[in-house]
Amino acid sequence: MTSIILLSVLGIINLFLGFLKSKRILLPLVMLFLAVVFGVNLLDWNNTQTYFSNMLTIDNYAVAFTGIMTLTTLLILPFSQNYIDAEDENLAEYYSILLFSLVGAIMMVAFENMIMLFIGVEIVSIAMYVLAGSNKHSLRSNEAALKYFLMGSFFTGVMLFGIVLLYGATGTFDITEIGAAQVGADGTTNTMFVMGLLITIIGISFKISAAPFHFWAPDVYEGTPTLFTTFMATVVKTAGVAAFYKLMAGAFDASLASWFPTMIAITVLTLVVGNIGAVMQPSVKRMLAYSSISHAGYLLMTLVSFNDFSENALFFYSLSYALASVASFGVLKLVEEERGGNHSFAAFNGLGKTNPLLAFVMTVSMLSLGGIPLTAGFFGKFFVFSSVIAAGNLVWLVALAVVLAAIGIYYYFKVVIAMYLQPAGENTKVSASGFAIAVLVICTVLTILFGLAPGLVSHML
Amino acid sequence: MNQIPEIIRTIPLEYYLFFSTALFVIGIIGVLTRRNAIIIFMCVELMLNAVNILLVALSAYRSDPNGQIFVFFIMAVAAAEVCVGLAIIVMIYRNIRSTDVHLLNHLKW
User: Fold this and answer.
1) What Gene Ontology molecular function terms does this protein carry (chain A) (predicted)?
2) Distance separating alpha carbons of residues A307 and A309, to the nearest angstrom
């Protein structure tokens, strides 16, 4: 809770810091802010409280996911070097929007009331519409912003309609009360309730880019400036999936029968579309966009088979995915800047010779995303799959996911092959600031650390 | 002011349900078929307002103020969305001198 207030206030302070002549001081200050928020957030650990007459609950689940999201934002910020160097960029505004959207993301993982879920989703989404179009003179960025905005507000309307139908069926917005009212006295579920539930599922599926509502994601991820794509692929997705899990597994567990077929269909489609789609992509950025769709599918697997361990599996998977994504998008951003906006596979040719460190970081994060042992990604997949198997009767889903993960290794290795086996040609050495290198090394070290000792964080919740 | 819920309740709840569903579907059809970004945006607003009508009706029928409070939240958020959305549309108009969404096809797979 303190983290929400602190982030809002710090965001406003940060806007005023934009008046300062020197832009160099902004980045260290914002990182300091986020570090403070990260620490303050941890103070709520094991201290469950509700706020605003039961609108928000800060429990361990919320604290853990807030921790991931704050840490991820902290790790993303150092890649904003090109905005610091450019004269006419509105750096303070971008940082503030990121801080404000983090407030929305925290609301999404701590909501106890549908109103808070809606407000959280909207705070995150509206901030992302702005950032998607932040490169005003690029037609691609414009198009990404318009696509994201029109489809996002459309699906916001859809989600709202679902929430209202749930309200009509149960007479309350409180998720615990909706959960208590979902099954009638005669053991059947109200038709209006089921309709509302399914429509709400559609709305949230869009926000986490689950198939068949994923069509916007590759285009928007490609057109958005890479710094903000990283934020979308990590923080926004983590918040969306955590909110989805809290809603379905936490509140609507009693009416499982009415939403289970839909969720299974969405999960399977997301896994298939994400992995098969990524194989065919010509550029690394689009490949990573499709891979983020497929990772949404793996995350959703915890949701259809929720049991005592799923929260931990979800947490560990989100953490490993966030670390690997920050590293891979970070390297992509540095390479892309050096090559004049080219983010095809050819841009990575010979990176192993020109920049051994960047190539190593990229390799580790690709291995982690692909789920190769000794990286955090392997244990992420391991925990998710074992929690699904523990639920029984869904072994076929795990088998399908394992096959698709094997396909995933193919497209992740396309990058590795380009870096180490292709000649550099005209590709020159990529320059990187010390801050960015430090973040990449931290991500890589954490990825390997959690791959060697997953027990450090895997049983916290 | 006290009679307003009673006035609302003079019409059966099903009528509100059908009316707002119809409005909502009109909005969906508009979003799917129109080409002008501003018209699409208007259709999205129509969907949000269909939701608002339904919320008010349900709230009056259940004598529960929560639904009406939610309407205020939706209005505030919709206003924020209008700000950002119109800014994006203006930005695009400055670049391509048009608001036709079919002209924006640089991102394809």
Assistant:
1) NADH dehydrogenase (quinone) (non-electrogenic) activity; NADH dehydrogenase (ubiquinone) activity; quinone binding
2) 6
